[in-house]
Design brief:
By secondary structure, this protein is an alpha/beta fold. It has a single domain, classed as TIM Barrel (Alpha-Beta Barrel), CATH 3.20.20.70. Helix content is 21%, strand content 27%. The radius of gyration is 17 Å and the shape is globular.
């Protein structure tokens, strides 16, 4: 198995329940909902993505030929001791590449493995923290996990229906778009109207972290 990694870097988790935690962000290349090319955005299943996941040319990116090679790379990026090691695997869509041997290799080096996925592919066993962010118009098959992150507003998604899914935490995050202020107000309104939901913000963008 060769893993195509867009970028990897040390930062603080900026979103969700684990916001503020020191973590290695490992971004896989590729997604099943959008090619990543702007000319395809209008016909993509996910049209509001704000992430570059095309290629392997980012900082800390490249192609890794084995799970052990990639896990060793993550450990070098961590550049610290064994305490509270956390790697956040994202994309693109990480389930296109993530597999059990890589999770095992990361666990062997003391990392907790967190994953952020769109939920259209089943989660790999062994993940320590699973965040699902559903996209309107897609078939979400992974309806359980630790954290459901609803980017809002999204026409075609019903928060009441999502509440029937099996998650420990339900978070609503304002969409990063031209109508940013309207999105913030809509997310606040949802959290106020439906107490199961908690507001989460992209704190890394507020404080200027990657």
């Amino acid at each position: 198995m060769t893993y195509a990694v867009k970028e990897s870097f040390l930062t603080l988790q900026g979103e969700g329940v684990q916001a503020g935690s020191r973590a290695v962000f490992l971004r896989f290349a590729g997604c099943n909902l959008w090619s990543g090319r702007e000319e395809d955005r209008a016909v993509a299943q996910c049209r509001f993505c704000d992430t570059d996941f095309v290629g392997t040319d980012g900082v800390g990116g490249g192609k890794f030929r084995s799970p052990e090679e990639l896990a060793a790379h993550v450990e070098r990026v961590w550049a610290g001791g064994p305490e509270r090691r956390l790697v956040v695997i994202t994309g693109g869509e990480p389930m296109l590449q993530l597999d059990t041997p890589l999770i095992d290799a990361l666990h062997a080096r003391g990392f907790r493995v967190a994953v952020e996925s769109n939920g259209t592919l089943p989660a790999v066993p062994g993940i320590d923290w699973l965040c699902i962010s559903p996209k309107a118009g897609t078939q979400v098959v992974q309806r359980s996990g630790d954290e459901l992150k609803l980017v809002w507003p999204q026409e075609g998604l019903d928060p009441a229906a999502l509440e029937q899914w099996e998650f420990a935490h339900f978070l609503v995050q304002p969409k990063d778009c031209v109508e940013r202020e309207q999105a913030v107000r809509a997310a606040i309104a949802l959290a106020m109207q439906r107490p199961l939901w908690r507001l989460t913000l992209q704190a890394h963008k507020v404080v200027g972290l990657a």
